[in-house]
Amino acid sequence: MTNLFNIILYEPMHNALVYITAHMPGGDVGLAIIILTIIVRIIIFPLSHKAAKSQMELKRLEPELAKIKVDYKDKKEEQAKKTFELYKQNKINPFSSCIL
């Protein structure tokens, strides 16, 4: 597992940091870290934006979800069915915010 972490995350980040540092005037590592952080944030922005949007949509549906929970509190299967119908009607994937 550690080797997979090194191959997927550590080595590319380290190589990018070395590359940026090598092309910085004076080899400023601090500035290279800041630049690398900005690059990484730009790369993951679409995922984090989608997760934030999904969370906002779920927040908007909270009153309806609470009503479903009250109406079907003794029927868990029916409650789950109605909840997923609500998600489907509003085109929301409740698990999309779990990615990030």
DSSP summary, beta strand count: 0
Radius of gyration: 22 Å
Report the biggest beta sheet as strand number plus sense, adding barrel if it closes: none
Summed up, the helix count is: 4
Task: Describe it.
One of its GO terms (biological process) is protein insertion into membrane. Keywords: Membrane, Transmembrane, Transmembrane helix. It comes from Candidatus Nomurabacteria bacterium GW2011_GWB1_37_5. Residues 30-99 form the Membrane insertase YidC/Oxa/ALB C-terminal domain. InterPro entries: YidC/ALB3/OXA1/COX18, YidC/Oxa/ALB_C. The mean pLDDT is 88. This protein starts with a helix and ends in an 11-residue tail after the last helix. It contains 4 helices and no strands. It is an all-alpha fold and 100 residues long. The chain has one domain (2-98). It has helices at 2-22, 29-60, 62-71, 76-89. Helix 3 runs antiparallel to helix 4.
